[in-house]
Amino acid sequence: DEQYLEADQMAHKLYEEIVKITQNDKPYIDKKAGLSDEQYLEKLSQSTTLYVGNLVGSDSWGAEDLAFCTEENQILEFFESCGEVKSVIMGLNKNKKIPCGFCFVEYFTREDAETAKTCLNLKQLGGVPKFNEIRIDFDIGFKEGRQYGRGKMGGQVRDEVMARMANEGRYRRRGFKQGGYGRGDSRGDGRRRRDYHEEEDEREDYRGRRNQRYDRERRRRSSSDD
After folding, report:
1. E-strand spans in the chain?
2. Which part of the chain is the RRM domain (predicted)?
3. Domain containing residue 156: CATH number
């Protein structure tokens, strides 16, 4: 539907802006690794492992609109164009245990890993519009547990943020056209009107109590003066 597509495009535009900002000369440092920056960068400089993001996982944001998701055999074939791959570890939703849009690719040599990062970053994998430009960075090396997403729902944080933005975008559009909540039922316009009048009643009650206190205080001072 048109509203969904609008929100979809808005979220993707924001994500692309975030990518532009975060793509600089400074490498990403995972603070959860338990290493100093110097130790982390040292391991990174010798690593043969790549982090690959922006894959289409079955749990990725918007994946319900796609005919297929990026599969492990596709990833293996794609990265073997740059050298012999030692392993591919698929990123999983921590709760659902299904692919969620990232993976780790380990080569046997640093040279092949560097070639892959140079040649394959921002290339298309799977040919799926809007989701097909993969992002590649060096990683310090896979450890058990790192295959799971870190979002509150178990997936990738960025997917959960984008899904929330899309939902909020659709919510605002419905609200603008139909009074703030979509349908004019007990959960929509009626609730807003009811809340407004309840707040007005509370304000009137407060003003009444305040005036009563003021009158009592004035009478008390008047009696004291007499």
Report:
1. 49-53, 85-92, 99-107, 135-139
2. 48-141
3. 3.30.70.330
Gap between the Cα atoms of 188 and 35, Å rounded: 51
For residue 59, what are its two tokens? 């749990």
User: Per residue in 28-80, pLDDT tens?
Assistant: 788 888 889 999 999 999 999 999 988 876 555 444 444 447 889 999 999 99
- CA dist 69 and 64 (Å) reads 10
**CB neighbour burial string for 82-121, b if at least 16 within 10 angstroms, e if fewer:** bbebeebbbbbbbeeebbbbbbbbbbeeeebbbebbeebe
Does the predicted model carry a pTM greater than 0.85? no
Residues 192 and 118 in one domain: no
Bridge-based pairing state of the strands 99-107 and 135-139: unpaired
Identify residue 59 by its one-letter amino acid code: D
Q: Where are the alpha helices (DSSP H) in 53-152?
A: 72-79, 110-120
Same domain, 140 and 29: yes
| Domain ranges, residue 193 | 188-226
* Averaged pLDDT for residues 139-156: 84
> Closest Cα to residue 98, out of 142, 155, 50, 145?
155
Q: How many domains does the chain have?
A: 2
